[in-house]
Design goal:
Elements (H helix, E strand, L loop, with lengths): L1 H4 L2 H29 L5 H20 L4
Membrane topology: Multi-pass membrane protein
Protein name: Cation transporter
Keywords: Membrane, Transmembrane, Transmembrane helix
């Protein structure tokens, strides 16, 4: 819908929704692998994925002089 309307806010919100879904999926995969297979390291790896994305967004949002 955002592409058809050429509306930048709708396009930005669509990107944010996709990213949020991917981050939630990373958490779900990590927890599931830990619970079902016993891969204790899968949950911390999913947390590192979220930290890496958050760090990138923080650098991007930081005001530049």
């Amino acid at each position: 819908m955002g592409v058809k309307l050429d509306h930048p806010v709708l396009l930005a919100e669509a990107r944010v929704t996709i990213i949020d879904g991917l981050l939630a999926s990373a958490v779900l995969v990590g927890i599931t692998l830990n619970a079902l297979i016993g891969w204790w390291w899968a949950d911390p790896i999913s947390a590192l994925v979220i930290v890496a994305y958050s760090a990138g967004e923080s650098v991007h949002a930081w005001p530049r002089p």
